[in-house]
Design a protein that fits this description.
Metallo-beta-lactamase, Chain A; 22 strands; 14 helices; about 475 residues; 2 domains
Amino acid sequence: MPVKTRMKLKFLGASKNVTGSRFLLEINEKKLLIDCGLHQERELKERDWGPFPVAPNSIDAVLLTHPHLDHSGFLPKLVRLGYKNPVYCTAATADIVKVMLLDSAKIQMIDAENKKKRHEKKQIKAPHPEIPLYTTDDAEACFPLLSPLKYLQKIDLGDGVTARFHNAGHVLGAAMIEILVEEKKDWRRLVFSGDIGRWDRPIIHDPSTFEQADYVITESTYGERSLPPGENMLAEFVEIVKSTLQAGGNLVIPSFALERAQDILYYLFKALDARLIPPVKVYLDSPMAADITEIFRNHAELFDDEMKALIAQQKTPFHFPGLRFVHDAEESKQLTTIKGPAIIIAGSGMATGGRIKFHLAANISRPESTVMFAGYQAVGTLGRNIVDRPEEVRILGDYYPVKARVIQIHGFSSHADREQLLRWNYALKQPPRQIFVVHGEEEAAHSLAETIRREKGWQVAVPGYLDEYELD
């Protein structure tokens, strides 16, 4: 490529950790921000409260891979700080991100108020003022900037730079972003994986792969771990449900509102339809998950063949006997008095906020109840703390002895495991100039990077926070 075209890539998050995905790509004077996520690890939240590393009003475009808050949740603050340009994403992501950002803002406002009361009562001085990172007004200010598009639709970003979104197979509408930089007869292709989905998962299609790329930015959440196949996961899930019901307790499932909640409903429907478990009351205690489930219905064009076949038979995993969507806050509070047996699904997936904390507080000390984490739990989150089985755990400012059965299963995860991450990267028919391994804890990222180096001999880097690379 002629010398006059300069490219730099700076890592503003998800570097040796699994949240806060933000990657700044500079092409001459053009600045593109790929993803705009929140940091959800307690020790990294200072990055969200501190100054943003680049002037928001200098960014020409934001491109979102998908709506999960660790990829989109910082957007309201970025807009409040002065960002006013387009936010490109798929149509499904545009619909879902509105719901998720509003919910995130409401939770932050409620948590800030509750924290203020607790701090006043206990005379604690907080490291940050007891105010939310952003409000519902800030979230709504993002909506006019959302620029929805279809998979494979080309976006002209100017100066010879174009982008296309490819199906990531991770959650409904999730994308991998391909950026092409052209000058005269030369070009460079960059691929940002976002979160790579798993093959042969329910509801949505398998992830896309690429045969050619110069620079690859790949996630590594499960870079050092294999996950059980889907059929084994269903059997494991059925056993957990049956044993909890027999014990007379509640099965409490922290769940992300997007995809994880719908996948859990899918497998509950399959188990009930096949009479693998007895009839049971199932509460989806998440207005956001209920709203997103409705968006799923509105984007049936993104379903895989198996899901379309169920719909053709007039069956749906989003409506079955015993399932109740809980919207009202008072009804949610009443669920904390249920002694069981029942299944309670609530957000968030890593128990970092939302209604799940109240259900955990009500059940964590009950030996007959089960807390089931359906997927990865980042270091520094309440979910990870509980999975590590301490004698007691702090929830909503109080300490509770951990007596409930605590189980973590990974079959529900919508992230590719180690073998599938390698499968995705190895689809390249020519060696890339560089692979950057991100969105994984340090051990997982280095494990994936070392395997690629050893097996392929490719150039692989594991960037740190604020590391910057000049791209040829």
